[in-house]
Write a structure and sequence with these properties.
Low-confidence stretches: none
Number of helices: 8
Order of helices and strands: HHHHHHHEEH
Number of strands: 2
Shape: elongated
Structural class: mainly alpha
Distance between the termini: 90 Å
Oligomer: single chain
Helix content: 55-70%
Strand content: 5-15%
Length: 155
């Protein structure tokens, strides 16, 4: 029985898949060793300097898949403690809060349970009820207050 070129290619592909399935760990180790080798590192440097390498990342992140991956990564990061802290810091900067002692204010903000003015319990699940009261002219932090106090009392 004589095989066509297409049939030969398909047999090689199936054979390679079976081999990989049976030797996953061996293949992963071989791949890891190559990635850590000097030959691989030199190739990567050369590729990044090339025009194709310079545009590869840009093209990827502009593609639908890249946008999707970036969006998912951002969502996951924002749920971490570091992501929440970074997001809060950016939001406070936009609002004009003085950032000189951010760490101290952020700790106080996260630990706050009661409003500093009316002493109502701040809802831990609904972060929008917890507000930063600050002087809009100087940006100096004053209190951590509930939404009602922030809107009505602090004006």
């Amino acid at each position: 029985m004589v095989l066509t070129e297409e049939e030969k290619k398909e047999r090689r592909r199936v054979s390679a898949l079976k081999y990989y399935e049976n030797n996953k760990e061996k293949q992963r180790e071989k791949s890891r060793k190559y990635r850590e080798s000097e030959k691989s590192k030199e190739y990567q440097k050369k590729y990044r300097k090339s025009e194709q390498g310079k545009n590869a990342g840009k093209k990827y992140y502009q593609s639908e898949r890249g946008k999707e991956i970036t969006k998912k990564g951002t969502e996951i990061y924002r749920k971490t403690e570091k992501g929440k802290k970074t997001n809060t810091k950016c939001r406070w900067k936009i609002q004009g809060l003085n950032m000189e002692n951010f760490e101290e204010i952020y700790k106080r903000y996260t630990d706050a349970i009661f409003c500093d003015i009316c002493e109502c319990v701040l809802d831990q699940d609904n972060k929008s009820k917890k507000n930063m009261d600050h002087d809009h002219d100087t940006g100096e932090f004053r209190n951590i207050v509930c939404f009602y106090c922030n809107i009505h009392i602090c004006k």
